[in-house]
Each structure stands twice: as structure tokens, then as C-alpha cells.
Amino acid sequence: MAIDVQVRHYLPAGFDQRTIRILLVGCGGNGAQMLMGLASLNSGLRAISSRSLHVTTVDDDIVSEANLGRQPFYACDIGDAKARVLTERINIAHGLRWTAIHGRAPQAVDLQPFDIVISCVDTASARRSLGAAIEDAARKPTYWMDLGNRAVDGQFLIGCPGSADKSGRLRLPTVLEIFPELADDQLPDDDAPSCSIAEALERQSLFVNRVLAAHALALLFDLLGRGSIGHAGAFFNLGTGQTVPIPLPREREPQG
Description:
The strands form 3 sheets. The protein has an 8-stranded mixed β-sheet with strand order 5-4-3-6-7-8-10-11, covered by helices on one side. It has one domain (about 15-250): NAD(P)-binding Rossmann-like Domain (Rossmann fold, 3-Layer(aba) Sandwich). Helices cover about 30% and strands about 25% of the residues. By secondary structure, it is an alpha/beta fold. The radius of gyration is 18 Å and the shape is globular.
């Protein structure tokens, strides 16, 4: 007879006593909320541990009028690069020296220096391109967290690129493994830009990105601040008020 064994995923020892390097891909709805939360996470980590964060943002988009309201931009930002606007604002507010790249990932950035990649992209093709670059990197990031949403629902997931966990633990599958349909290059992209704030709010709820980012950041805090996590992500739906965790891979242990 076999029984399920409760499992947790533990942060590798290599993350102790140093700055954790994060690449944030995308500074739109989800990415902007994640960046602001990462600044708070950095403050929290410094208060309770010897860890801190250095974040590099990358996005090739510029601020448009349609971004105002749902994304944390102002009228004075229109026409400026999203990554630079947000990163400079965070640096000034928190006394940081985080880095911004105005360009498209993965082409515009070397993935090898990063411990964690967080993707906040709009399309399946962008995830495929990023996933391929991560797998081809000589030094893969330890974690790849992906956030995605529709009008009122979304999901976040953290995985471990590569073939196996060096410690012998179960590896966390990545977003392209959990959702293999994203690997289909015939899957059409739905990335039509909104022309106005009202149209943007028809496409996505005003607070869907904030809710999604808050859940993802809470998971990162447990992993980086507390040292372990009990789930790999979650689905949520603002319309129903439901949140359903994505479980970690589970081992089965024989019972005599």
C-alpha cells in the first residue's frame, strides 16, 4: 500500500548570505505590480535575513494613454520606456541601483547571471522564446516564475529549468511543462493593443494584475524569506473569489 507524503520545496543553500539576482521580463500590467512588490520584498529580506535582491527589468514597450489606470503610470510618462520609467522610480523611492533595459527578451539580455527569471509577458510565443533561451543557457537560472492572466482570472507558477535537481529532490516543472499547449507554435497570440483606458478595462479587470502579483510575491517571500514553499503556484478567479493552489510534485513512499 502507498500513501501520499507531504512535501515542501526548500531553497538551495547557494542562496544564503548573498544578493539574489532577478530578471523581470515585462513591465506592463503584471510586471509593473511585481516590480513594486519586489522592492518591498527586498526591504523585508534585508530585515529578516542576510539576503537582498538586485532586479534587472527588460521591456521593449513604451507608455501609452491606454496604460493609465490599470498600470502604475502617469500622463507625464506617455512616450517613455516602461522599464526605465518604473525602475528609475523604484530606485529613487527605495535608494536602490536596479537596472533597466529597453529591449525585447531574450535577445536584449544575457540570462546567465540571473538566479530567478520572472516572466510577465502577454503571449505564448514570448513564453516559448524565453523558455528556449533559458534551456539553451550554459548557466540556467535556478527558478523561472511565470504570471499570466485573462480578464478576471489568472495563474502563477514557479519552476526549475533543467533536467534534475542536483540535491536529488524532485524538480519543479516549468510553465511550459505544466501547460504543454503553450509549446504549440500554431497557438495564436492574443496581444492586440488597447486604444483607450476604457477599452483596456474591457479586456482586463482593473485589479486583476494587482491580485495576481500579490499572490506571486507572497510565494516568493515564503521561498526566499522563510526558506520553503508548500505549493508551486495557484489559479485564481476574481469573478468567483476562488483560489486553487498548484501542488508541488509528490513522491509516493511504500508502506509495509
